[in-house]
Amino acid sequence: MTPDTLETLLLSHLKKNARLSIQDLVDMTRATAKEIEEILDNLEKSGAIAQYTTIINEDLLKKSPSLIRALIEVSVRPEKKTGYDAVAKRISAHPNVVSHYLLSGNYDFLVIVEGSTLQEISQFVSELASLENVRSTGTHFILKKYKESGVHFLSEESENRLAIVP
Amino acid sequence: MNHPFSKRLENIPPSGIRKFFDLVAHSKDIISLGVGEPDFSTPWAIREEAISTLERGTTAYTSNSGLPECREAIATYLKNSFNCSYNPANEMILTFGVSEAVDIAFRTILNEGDEVILFEPCYVCYAPLVTLAGGHVVTIDTSKNHFLPPIDQLKKAISPLTKAVLICSPNNPTGAVIPSDILQEIAALSIKHGFWVITDEVYAELSYDKPFVSYASLEGIKEKTILLNGFSKAFAMTGWRLGYVCSSQDFISRALKIHQYSALCAPTVAQYAAIEALNHPESVVAMKQSYQARRNLFVKRLNQIGLPTLLPEGAFYCFPSIMGTGLSSEEFAVQLLKKTNVAVVPGSVFGQGGEGFIRCCYATDLTLLKEAVLRIHSFLKKIG
Lengths: 166, 384
Fold this sequence. Notes:
The complex is a heterodimer of chains A (166) and B (384).
Chain A: H1 3-16, H2 22-29, H3 33-46, E1 68-76, H4 85-92, E2 97-102, E3 109-115, H5 118-129, E4 134-141, E5 147-148, E6 151-152
Antiparallel strand pairs in A: 1-3, 1-4, 2-3, 5-6
Chain B: H1 7-10, H2 18-25, E1 31-32, H3 44-55, H4 68-82, E2 92-95, H5 97-109, E3 115-120, H6 126-132, E4 136-141, H7 151-157, E5 162-168, H8 180-193, E6 196-200, E7 225-230, E8 243-246, H9 249-262, H10 268-278, H11 281-304, E9 317-318, H12 329-340, E10 342-343, E11 345-346, E12 358-361, H13 366-383
């Protein structure tokens, strides 16, 4: 297996389960621990692997953190020299912003924010709307999660196979 | 009336393992390594095509041998993927899974007393279906030959009554893949002695270490070859029940007589969905990659905890030896289930050479596979 193929394979396994140990990856790919560690070190150092994260279905938590999530469409005036990036940097820096994309279409940015109360989100929206380059915003609160990062939250994929089939 | 039921059925022994299966069926919260199917749902595009077929109301019978466009898609797929050439017009029948294809293959060629050679351990349906078709089963044990057909023993087993030899590669339950040199030797014997070769290739897409060689792609054997394949395993379509049988026109015209009266046609919705399945080879690639990673991890760890296991080259099963425990495969499976809630299939279910082994399916969530290994390890320590 070439290092490139191994890298693609490791990323594909880790995207599905970031908690796989080096030993798991060794056993799954039949590469050596040294080869795997070298590839992951490089990907982490370059920032290509930005973070190992966790996907949570809050509905199933015993003690719900009552997190409120909203998608905000933002139209902005890009700046002369820096275009969208300078204003994007200011918005992204806000602690409530969890994801932020530049899009084609009717508006410029899609900003995903999280907060623990409606007030917190609305406070953020007011701050956002008052930024000099922001022309307009449109806020959509998320009511229910069906799928996130490839993981289904509906019961469709649950086990329905017979336990024994010869 | 002296015989209210078929006498042939009496020649099929009742399954000795029934009690074990019932035990599993009534257990809760088990980690099952006993399944025989993918752990993926049928890919989205295939399901959507089926829904659309229903919405259009396209639900009538198809021709007996199956939708022409589905047969054409399969013929193109067989040519492109495995270099097998079959005319979709008259060398193919779509069936209710490979199971029906096995049944009609035997019923098309067997006369009372004809012998069929099976390499065991093998899938459980072959021997009973030979018996029901009036044939006589001759078995060859592959367990001492890395679960591959031992050609010297095959030569000894061939008699004037030998009508057919059945091979299944990649294999259920062992995962063994028959290399092309052994296929060539079987082909040479088929040509020399004139017996049929029935080749069950339902796991053909799941060959991990080398490109799969189809027996049906060999030169000069078409007239005596019956190729069986289907959508269950590669496309995660087990419940859709769609398989196919390909052979010469002479065979197919006769097999069609059985299929048209006993089945009429394969499920229509499944046939439309299958055409869509063949348009999405990428879904097979992703599933295959996932099985391969799990195979690598699971087999390595079984060996580490003291269950000698050959690395299976295909399908999604491995066949660890439990001989070191001194238990029979059924005792092992029952005790493992009762003590650790892990279900496996005793090797004895799969015939001669299966005793002393268990079949584990690794098409199960990786976290559960890792947990299953830990539980089997603790079980081995307790009984050791």
